[in-house]
Design a protein that fits this description.
The protein is an alpha+beta fold. The protein has helices at residues 17-68, 72-94, 101-120; strands spanning 123-126, 138-144, 154-159, 161-164, 167-170, 172-177. Residues 1-9 have low confidence and may be disordered.
Amino acid sequence: MSVKKETAKKVKPAKSKSQKKSSKSKTDDMILQLTTQMVGMEDKHLRLKAEFDNYRKRKEREVGNLLRYEGSNVISEFIAVVDDLERMQEAMDADSNGSNESLRKGIEMILKKIHKRFEALDVQPFTDPGDALDSELHDAMMIRAEKDKKENEILEVFEKGYRYKDKILRHAKVVVNKLK
């Protein structure tokens, strides 16, 4: 007679349904937790990227403005010199004895050169008597009443205003007409 040996099968202990469910719920919880973390990390990444893009754009604008208005400080200093030369020229014109004719011509030549250089640099003076007062461009130093002039008309200019490209370097100092 032949004897058959039964091979012993290794049998894993059977999991109960509650163990399967708890294992599945742990896995689901882990997946939910990891998904939440991933969404948070993606959000942080996008915010950091946007913040860096804004920083880069802001720096590009700042550097552009620095290059665009590179000489504004030097020009502002020269404006004061031009004012002094113009005052000197006016004083010499008022003293009409003619003894300072060569000095007068020298000052005139210097002023012409400076004004040509200002034009080349895109520096423009603004404000003449008769212009309308604009608070963005003018500082009203005094008020005078003249009936034959319009309201807020500039009667006198103490100091011209200067604009460098689209930037105001100095506001004009003016006397304004105010009707009572």
